[in-house]
Here is the input.
Amino acid sequence: MVAFISKRLLLFIPTLFGVSVIVFLMLQMVPGDPVNTIVPADATEEERMRVTRELGLDKPIYVQFIYWLVHMFQGDMGTSIIKRLPVSELLLPAIGNTLLLAAASAVVSFGLGLAIGVYSAYRPKSWAAALFNVLGLAGIGMPNFWAALILIGIFSVSLGWLPSSGIQSIGGGGLLDTFRHLILPTIAASLTTLGVMTRMVRSTIAGLLQQDFVFALQAKGAPAGKVLRHVLKNGMPTILTVAGLQFGYLIGGSVLVETVFAWPGIGQLIYQAIGQRDFPIVQSGVLVVAVAFVLINLAVDSLHAVLDPRVRHS
Here is the structure.
């Protein structure tokens, strides 16, 4: 098992390096100069050059990249160009807020997806299964930012039941207030994942129900609960793999949801930094998301290896 995890870790190193190179080069191609967002419009050329040197933008691109990469490995994410604060101080609370939203969305989408998928596999011709199939397709095809706007229009503007933005009311309202702010973003972020999980679980369970071991258990008079446990045990590696990928999507792919709801997560922070040409935040933020995605995949691979020993020896 240790050797299996070590191999996966070695594969992740070039992955993270490739992500860092791509992000850095793409930011260099973004039009606009971050110096323009700092100095006033009537600044002299000497003032502009001074700021350029302070930011290290006067050095060749490869020197800037090496400097940034070395400091990242030392735990120094740099300083925000606009906010003039250490990037780590800005990212840490944002990461916590994003993980909170992703975890809530995962609980909703994975729990409902498993329950609905199993039910639809056992009752494929029922009206409920047909309805779930339509809703699953709608969830996959519906952009999460559009769903977010619809939810705000109904539950915040028309009914006034739930807040439409932020993580807490002005002045703070405790855990209950945070929970109320979390409901709508969770629903919007989980719709696509719920659709994917529902369809994947249904197809996986339906295929396993046609296997010989299921017919053998039923012929022996095994209760339905025991049959279901065996079916889930055999289908869990596939379900966990897709669930892990979807959780990574919830962390890195909810930028628009966080922006619509003004949720102070890493997605909104990166989105604002892109508009302000605040490159240190963008570079570090994207790399942190990539690291999180890599660690999630490592955890999924490890669980997959535990559930299916054949994976460890492949």
About this structure: The longest helix spans residues 87-122.
